């Protein structure tokens, strides 16, 4: 139960599911009666294997292709493969800890949620289908957004969200088609401080990881993977993201010192899980 709480995802739902599962394992007949389960119509639960590293990489290449284009996705694949080759040379095939971290967190940085991506996700037919599956009858969709170029700021300089009506769906459709402007001179959203920072983080991350590869050893592999996982702590938007970014940079600086320390070169350092 505590693990479910710490995970922080659909806590109440997952606790209930866990309780139902325990009771079903103990007395299925009683659970079936309570839930009014028709045994003849019950579906078989299929347990799927965890995705392999190659599966993860392929899924992210597919997403980044939709996010921007095939060339952008290829940059991601090429760098991940560069890390995999370096890790294999340093520690053999017994570990892909660093490669896995880079596969996850380079993707996170490259797929930052800007205006074009928010528009693409909302314009996707899957979003409309999800809404239709949740509600029936006559309903309206309203959006609470804080566009950097339009939103007002509060006394502390933070962007204030504003309500937008259903017409935003058409605006999303139009904006989604303009994703090719991302990062170009014609990208009006790209001139904001937040967008410039997000693009810069991608290059900084690649430089940091690239500098680790020539010095990678079995003893410092765990520290290298921790450094590559730093983007995990960079969350949220606006001032929330700024705060997390500051903390992440401080943590990265400490880990880089540990990686460069003599102990990291000759002695294995224990890390608490």
Report what the structure shows:
With 273 residues, the protein is mostly helical. Among the domains are: 2-41, no CATH class; 121-179, no CATH class. Helix content is 60%, strand content 2%. The chain has 13 helices and two strands. It has helices at residues 2-7, 11-26, 28-35, 53-67, 70-91, 97-110, 115-123, 125-134, 168-176, 193-212, 221-228, 238-260, 262-266; strands at residues 143-145, 162-164. The chain has a two-stranded antiparallel ribbon with strand order 1-2. The longest helix has 23 residues, at 238-260. It is globular. It starts with a helix and ends in a 7-residue tail after the last helix.
Report a brief summary of the structure:
This protein is mainly alpha-helical. The chain has 13 helices and 2 strands. The protein has helices at residues 2-7, 11-26, 28-35, 53-67, 70-91, 97-110, 115-123, 125-134, 168-176, 193-212, 221-228, 238-260, 262-266; strands at residues 143-145, 162-164.
Secondary structure elements and pairings:
Layout: H1 2-7, H2 11-26, H3 28-35, H4 53-67, H5 70-91, H6 97-110, H7 115-123, H8 125-134, E1 143-145, E2 162-164, H9 168-176, H10 193-212, H11 221-228, H12 238-260, H13 262-266
Antiparallel strand pairs: 1-2
Helix pairs in contact: 2-3, 4-5, 4-6, 5-6, 6-10, 6-11, 7-9, 11-12
- What Rg, in angstroms, do the CA atoms define? 23 Å
List the total number of helices.
Answer: 13
For the largest sheet, list the strands in their spatial order.
1-2
Q: What integer is the average pLDDT?
A: 86
What form results from the Cα inertia axes? globular
* Biggest beta sheet attributes: 2 strands, antiparallel
Strand content of the residues, in percent?
Answer: under 5%
Order of helices and strands: HHHHHHHHEEHHHHH
Return residue spans where pLDDT drops below 50 for at least 5 consecutive residues.
Answer: 264-273
Distance between the termini: 19 Å
- The number of E-state strands comes to 2
Helix content: 55-70%
Structural class: mainly alpha
């Amino acid at each position: 139960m505590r693990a479910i709480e710490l995970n922080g995802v659909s806590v109440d739902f997952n606790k209930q599911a866990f309780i139902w599962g325990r009771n079903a394992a103990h007395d299925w007949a009683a659970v079936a009666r309570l839930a009014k389960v028709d045994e003849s119509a019950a579906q078989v639960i299929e347990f799927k294997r965890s995705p392999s590293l190659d599966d993860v990489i392929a899924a992210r290449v597919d997403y980044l292709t939709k996010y921007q284009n095939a060339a952008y996705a290829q940059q991601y694949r090429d760098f991940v493969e560069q890390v995999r080759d370096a890790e294999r040379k340093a520690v053999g095939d017994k570990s892909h800890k660093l490669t896995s971290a880079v596969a996850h967190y380079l993707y996170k940085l490259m797929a930052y949620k800007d205006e074009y991506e928010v528009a693409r996700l909302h314009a996707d037919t899957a979003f409309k289908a999800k809404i239709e599956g949740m509600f029936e009858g006559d309903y309206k969709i309203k959006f609470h957004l804080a566009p950097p170029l339009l939103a007002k700021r509060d006394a502390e300089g933070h962007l204030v969200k504003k309500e937008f009506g259903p017409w935003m769906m058409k605006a999303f459709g139009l904006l989604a088609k303009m994703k090719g402007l991302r990062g170009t001179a014609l990208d009006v959203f790209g001139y904001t401080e937040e967008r410039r920072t997000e693009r810069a983080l991608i290059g900084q991350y690649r430089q940091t990881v690239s500098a680790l590869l020539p010095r990678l050893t079995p003893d410092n592999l765990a520290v290298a993977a921790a450094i590559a996982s730093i983007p995990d702590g960079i969350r949220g938007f606006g001032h929330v993201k700024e705060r997390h970014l500051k903390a992440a940079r401080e943590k990265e600086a400490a880990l880089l010192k540990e990686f460069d320390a003599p102990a990291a070169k000759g002695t294995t350092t224990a890390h608490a899980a």
